[in-house]
Structure formats: C-alpha cells, structure tokens
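Troubleshooting log. The previous structure file for this entry was overwritten by mistake, so regenerating from the original sequence record. Sequence copied from the archived sheet and checked twice against the printout by T.R.
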Amino acid sequence: MMPLLYFENAMGRVLEHPNGYALIRYHAGKRTLADVQDLLTNLGRLLQKRGWFKLLSDQRLLSPLSEEEQALILDYWQARQFMFGATVGAVLLANNHNTRLSFARVREQAHGSLRYHQFDSELAADVWLRQLER
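Regenerated output below.
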C-alpha cells in the first residue's frame, strides 16, 4: 500500500503512511511563513486524527529555514509536546548543508519536544518507526 496524500502546499506534502506514521516530504524552492504554518497545522491534524506520535521527515530537498521559520517550527513542537506529549521522528537529512544547520538550531532549542533519529535511507527509517511503541 502506498502513502495517501493528506495535504500539500509550497512547503511540502503530508502523507498518511500505511505503517502508522505521518510522512512529510519537503519541496525545494520558495515558500512563505504561511506555507510553513499551514503544513505544521495539517501535520498536527493528521497526527491527532490518527492518534499517532511518529513521523518521517524527508528533508532531502528542503532549502534552508529562515530565522522566522525556525522560530515558528520550534514554537509549534513545544506547544504540541505540552498538549499531546513528545513526537518521535525519523529524519532523512537535507542535501543542503545550510538546511541541516538550520534544523540543528531548532533541535538544540527544542529541549526534547521533538525527539528524532537520523537515517540515510527511507527503508531504515521505516523499519525503526514501525518498531516504536508509546
């Protein structure tokens, strides 16, 4: 079974993965702060609708995050942890070095609100996510 598209905009796609987690595939190119907010909002809706706490974040094509985008993402995950508990993620790191640095800054400030492991392949990430239990 293939993942089902749940939401898409200039930031990326949010998909429902049949193995029980949300899949985010980030797009390359320009986006607005509203695009980032909309993607996060819809990701949260999917996680809540399904009762999921796991996600796979495919950042390979993502361009660097602005400071405003970093702040928005950090605020989102901290608020989500407060309301629903921590989300666990598998991450396929961005090809762009500056994008990796911008996500590292978010992670450093997140203080455990988003716990994740980095993977080189989607298959390895999927195997890891499937074995997780709350």
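The CA atoms of residues 41 and 128 lie 25 Å apart. Archived copy saved in two places this time.
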